[in-house]
Amino acid sequence: MSVLHRIKSGTSVLLTLGTVAGTAAPMLVAPAPSFAQTAFSDVNNNYWAKDFIQDLSERGIIKGFPDGSFRPDAPVTRAEFAAMIRSVKKAKTRAAVGFADVPSNFWASGAIAEAYEMGWMSGYPGNVFRPAQQIPRVQVVVALNNGMGYEPTCDFQDVLSYYSDAGEIQSYAVKSVAAATEKQLVVSYPNPKSLKPNKSATRAEVAAFIYQTLVSTNQARAINSPYIAKINVSESVAVKIPSGVTIPIEYTKGKILLGPNDKSPITLTVAADIAGNNGQVLIPEGSKISGELRSTASGVQFVAQELSILNGSRVPLNATSQLITRKETVTKGVNVGNLIKNTALGAAAAAAIAGVTGDRAIATEEVLGGAGIGTLIGVFLGRDKVDLYAVNPDTDLDLLLNSELVVGTASTGICSAR
Predict the structure, then answer these.
(1) How confident is the model at residue 245, as a pLDDT?
(2) Which residue, of 219, 376, 404, 416, is most buried by count of CB atoms within 10 Å of its CB?
(3) What confidence tens digit (pLDDT) does each residue in 260-307 have?
(4) What is the value of pTM for the model shown?
(5) Which of 337, 341, 340, 348 is CA-nearest to residue 387?
(6) Is 160 exposed, middle or buried (0-12, 13-18, 19+ CB in 10 A)?
(7) b/e map of 117-156 (b: 16 or more CB within 10 Å)?
(8) Are 6 and 246 in contact, with CB atoms under 8 Å apart?
(9) Which pLDDT tens digit goes with each residue over 138-193?
């Protein structure tokens, strides 16, 4: 059994933990390789995008021209991009719309409709698509990233500082460019640190972007290209904290009194960082654990229900404290003010104290969950004393995991340029 002793602020509890795979990216369905033109007269073996172009040509996603050329440096229009990206199949997420500047007999009307339905592309205000507009590189990045639904895990500024021309990225595209950069969708020749966001994308560049999108879903082999934008990103994994681990806790009050059959909601605070064997904090000090203090004839036990981690994650928690059997006797002549100083009370305990002492002025805020005690007082009227369970949170309520706890360790702000 692993037991973690209470360690105060500034230190961590280290565990040897297992990991499970993180959430997989959405899967694409790229056309299977078939006979296609794989060599182009204007794409030689030393051309920077040769491998990207050749693979996509073999898959039937892009095509050359009847004269045997590919025209890699030719700009791509929005209609042409729609025709390329519609070949990378994914589930349709919305209904098609009719753009005012895309007549039904336009050569790319079907491709534009499908690119829109699959979430790759959108139009402009005024219900226009601008099919003849040369598509900027940043629009290609945004289209591919949004189609995949990728979200950034790092601070935007950390990621975008990779690019020497980050200031040229329009505000609407910042989040998508950051996420796409983390996923290595961005390719820039000859300098990967120059995004050139507002430059018209070429056929070769679009081929590279689309290919990297396939790589991000493990549907294409990674190409060792020096022109792929790469940053160091801490991977998101799920870590298992094994059963038998003890989580140290603290509470705002120095004592808790409970009567018979009390069931009191209470929120405890994690007293020390819980860290993995690599030192990464899994459950930070200050995280909250909600549950109930339950008293029976045998004693009192805290039963945890949910862990709220400081990063906003909330996970079910199967953990309990030890069984507390310590009791404290409350007599008729006791000074109630001294008795309940720095003490939280279960509803039954509050009623017992009021019934035995005759002091009905116990503040509602002292009662766990703010429960009313009026209807319970009659049970204790006429008694000279009552025994209540006395809980010392500092020593009694540390929690033992009854089953493994899986927590996510996605990091934010831990990104750096390579």
Answers:
(1) 93
(2) 376
(3) 888 889 999 999 988 877 666 788 889 999 999 999 999 999 999 999
(4) 0.54
(5) 348
(6) buried
(7) bbbbbebeeeeebebeebbbbbbbbbbbbbbbebebbbeb
(8) no
(9) 999 999 999 999 998 888 888 999 999 999 999 999 999 999 999 999 999 999 99
Choose among 219, 396, 228, 395: nearest CA to 302.
396
- Please give the structure tokens belonging to residue 157: 């500024």
Torsion sign across C-alpha atoms 82, 83, 84, 89 = positive
State yes or no: pLDDT of 338 exceeds 80.
Answer: yes
Rounded to the nearest 10 degrees, the angle between the axes of helix 137-148 and helix 203-216 is: 20
DSSP state of 324: B
- Report the distance separating Cα 196 and Cα 417, nearest Å: 18
Which residues pair with residue 258 across a beta bridge? 389
DSSP assignments along 255-316, one per residue:
EEEE-TT-EEEEEEEE-SEEE-TTS-EEE-TT-EEEEEEEE-SS-EEEEEEEEE-TTS-EEE
- The Cα 322–Cα 299 span in angstroms is 10
Amino acid at 258: L
First to last CA, the chain: 42
Tokens 């030689």, located at residue? 44
Residue 278, CA distances (Å) to 12, 13, 17 in order: 11, 11, 9
Q: What is the token pair recorded at 80?
A: 């042409």
Asked if 357 contacts 363 with a C-beta cutoff of 8 angstroms, the reply is: no
User: Quick one: DSSP state of residue 319?
Assistant: E
Structure-token pair, residue 359 = 């002091």
CA distance 234 to 222: 19
